[in-house]
Amino acid sequence: MTINISVVNEYRQLLEATIAHLENLRQHGQTWVLVQPETLAALAKPPPPTPRRPMVAPQAVTTSAPPPLVEAPVTTTPAAAPRPVTMPEPQEASIATEDCELALASLRAQALACTKCPHLVKSRKHVVFGVGNPRAELMFVGEAPGADEDEQGEPFVGAAGQLLTKMIQTMGLRRQDVYIANVLKCRPDTPGQTSGNRKPTPQEMVTCLPWLEKQIDIIKPKVLVALGATALEGLTNQKVAITKERGVWRNYRGIPLMPTYHPAYLLRNQSIQTKRQVWEDLLRVMEKLGMHITEKQRNFFLKK
């Protein structure tokens, strides 16, 4: 029998993520979970038919003549009324946050099992769903996972991700305060190459975009930041030049969207002018969010 290791790994990853999430809810006093209608519908489907056992011919049995039938009196007992089912009342103070966490957990479980791009399913190690605060006001969107992200199953953990974390901290936030995701959830395959990355194709991004759209719908951030041209192209389905688009506010499904350079570009181009351009973009984001900006922050990366 041949075992598909990729399928086994995906199943294990999905199972471990689900168990960990349920354990976390139980530790915080949660005794019930919401179930999506689609899940209930799937569970309601009848199981596949089981093979019938072969018929066995009955053995002949010799018996005496049966006694005459006597109709017995029938006593009818009224059925007991069904007891009403009492559902636990959700706590009003935390229902919104718990709803977001549960909705993201459900969406994550579905994304981990996605097989819409067979070539990416074959080459990926992990589906890189997203990470961060499910109620974040600020959400960063990149293009696709790299080798480090594919290995760890978390977006922006390589060199570019470490720089992004520093950028977030310079804004006065922590990485766990924001939400980080990619347009493409799987690392683009590189047939015949042992290293390096490739740009996602338009078709790959169109296929994967619904996952990101659902993430945004659940989190409802106040501001989106598109990191690089590819991320902006994935969101808008338009060819763009990031040098012209960065720093200019866009509107994405009713949410302010700020395009800026990808952190990987800053690693290649470390001029103070480029750093200042990105920082000015982030200052605009901070202003849009109503964050307090110190004089020191306003003067970062200015030529002296």
Task: Summarize the structure in short.
This protein is of the alpha/beta class and 304 residues long. The protein has helices spanning 5-27, 37-44, 95-112, 118-123, 147-152, 159-170, 202-219, 229-236, 242-245, 263-268, 272-288, 295-298; strands at residues 131-132, 138-142, 179-182, 223-227, 250-252, 255-260.
Secondary structure elements and their pairing?
Layout: H1 5-27, H2 37-44, H3 95-112, H4 118-123, E1 131-132, E2 138-142, H5 147-152, H6 159-170, E3 179-182, H7 202-219, E4 223-227, H8 229-236, H9 242-245, E5 250-252, E6 255-260, H10 263-268, H11 272-288, H12 295-298
Parallel strand pairs: 2-3, 2-4, 4-6
Antiparallel strand pairs: 1-3, 5-6
How would you describe the overall organization of this protein?
The chain is of the alpha/beta class. The protein has a domain at 128-298: Uracil-DNA glycosylase-like domain (Uracil-DNA Glycosylase, subunit E). Helix content is 43%, strand content 8%. The chain is built from twelve helices and six strands. It has helices at 5-27, 37-44, 95-112, 118-123, 147-152, 159-170, 202-219, 229-236, 242-245, 263-268, 272-288, 295-298; strands at residues 131-132, 138-142, 179-182, 223-227, 250-252, 255-260. It has a six-stranded mixed β-sheet with strand order 1-3-2-4-6-5, with helices on both faces. Strand 5 (250-252) and strand 6 (255-260) form a beta hairpin. Helix 3 packs antiparallel against helix 7 (202-219). It starts with a helix and ends in a 6-residue tail after the last helix. Mean pLDDT is 82; it is low at 46-95.
